[in-house]
Amino acid sequence: MTDTTQTGVAATDDPRESRRTPVTKRGGGAAASRGRTTIADGVVEKIAGLAARDVVGVHAMGSGLSRTFGAVRDRVPGTGGGKANVTRGVKAEVGEVQTALDLEIVVDYGVSIADVAGDVRENVIAAVERMTGLEVVEVNIAVSDVKLPEEEEEEPEPRLQ
User: Fold this and answer.
1) pLDDT by residue (tens digit) across 29-72?
2) How far is it, in rounded angstroms, from Cα 106 to Cα 144?
3) Chain centroid offset of residue 33 CA
4) Percentage of the chain lying above the pLDDT 70 cut
5) What is the DSSP string of 128-142?
């Protein structure tokens, strides 16, 4: 598609200055309308997992069983060894313009679960919408455990340094 527009015409009698100059626009629209961007579920899950972990009062993500399997998997060479799985405890359903999230968290003992859940919801929504442009329609939070102060960590220190 080619658009021809008229540039300003000078108010002189000089015929060289009163000519119309064609201007060609290429592409025919804003850059945002020239293609499609798809965002994988895993991308949204990572963003949500990191945003949820940033909230004070969130001890861990996922159920006890998934954290145990994750700790074992992290120790196996070639599986991301040692890195915390940021998507653990997060499930996302991503559409073309909207997303819905389910999170499973473990909270620290003594914090208000309602306050922590609200803060997690706000932080996750803000991060996902800012980074992806998707509308977050819901964030469901399941609190699967409370971390007591005297409980040992599930992932023991490695014997070798």
Assistant:
1) 777 678 889 999 999 999 999 999 999 999 999 975 544 545 55
2) 6
3) 22
4) 63
5) HHHHH--EEEEEEEE
CB-count burial class (<10 Å; 0-12, 13-18, 19+) for 69: middle
CA distances from 57 to 47, 77, 119 (A): 18, 31, 10
Asked if the model's pLDDT at residue 85 lies above 80, the reply is: yes
| 85/70 Cα distance (integer angstroms) | 7
Cα separations (Å) of 109 from 52, 85, 104, 112?
Answer: 17, 23, 16, 9
How many CA atoms are closer than 13 Å to the CA of 150, on its beta-carbon side? 0
Contact 97, 26 (CB under 8 A): no
Strands annotated E in the chain: 58-61, 90-94, 98-108, 135-147
**Averaged confidence pLDDT in the chain:** 80
